[in-house]
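My main concern about presentation is that the manuscript never shows what a single data entry looks like. For the editor and my fellow referees, an illustration may be useful. For illustration, here is how one protein appears when written out as sequence plus structure tokens:

***
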Amino acid sequence: MKPAIAFWSGGKDSGLALDRVRRACAYDIVALITTVNEQYRRVAMHGVREELIDRQAQAIGIPLHKMYVAGGSSNDDYVPALCRALQRFKAQGLDDVVFGDIFLEDLRQWRENLLNDLGMTGIFSLWKHDTRQLAEEFIERGFKAIVCCVNDAQLKQSDVGSELDAEFFQSLPAGVDSCGENGEYHSFVYDGPIFRRPVAFAVGETVYRPLGAGGLSGGSAARAQAIPVPATSTPTKTKGFWFVDLKLNEPEPAGAVTR
């Protein structure tokens, strides 16, 4: 199998994309890349603590490379950090990068343009698949995840902390994508076929962060959403985001590996 790297948000789509790539036996994923806010030490928009992403990688058994960006989460911070991370792997002879994107054309084009400049190729294992079917596949494959963030324009405070099970997907309002591809919600996946053991965590407080306020994601939620696609002038009904704070509740296992 050809070695490759995979972008890892810690959520449902990146988990399902990794599962599909592994089952296809075309690529050997040798590293995961996660973007972490340098100031708050959390995954942008997801608001998940850095140490929980570490635990995911340890439970999966793939080394994790953390790409740190400054608190403002602007493209001026993100793009240079991304290029440095990719160039590091390119220098090791790795040309292929796996993403969990599903149907956002501008985002895929942005990624492919950047990768092309670096002499690398994007692998989109979920691309153009029906998101309702992907949600069903997620359940059927035995994945388990929790909603860690929701956009208040589409979902409610009570949706944060929900398990991503059949009941959750069936309860989504009309107009909300099943996989949250438009940013309606984000998730933290803690068990499934890609894991050698579940990730143990505790559910903490639920907090609300209005647009423009520093949140669990660290910085402006509006600006964080603009990464890596430039912000648009389209009016939004979003006033803010609900987050649930997830925490570790067990000691770090021996033999942890990062890179």
Summary: Helices lie at 12-24, 50-60, 75-90, 105-118, 131-140, 166-171, 221-225. Residues 95 and 120 are 5 Å apart (CA to CA). The two ends are 21 Å apart (CA to CA). The chain has one domain: 2-248.
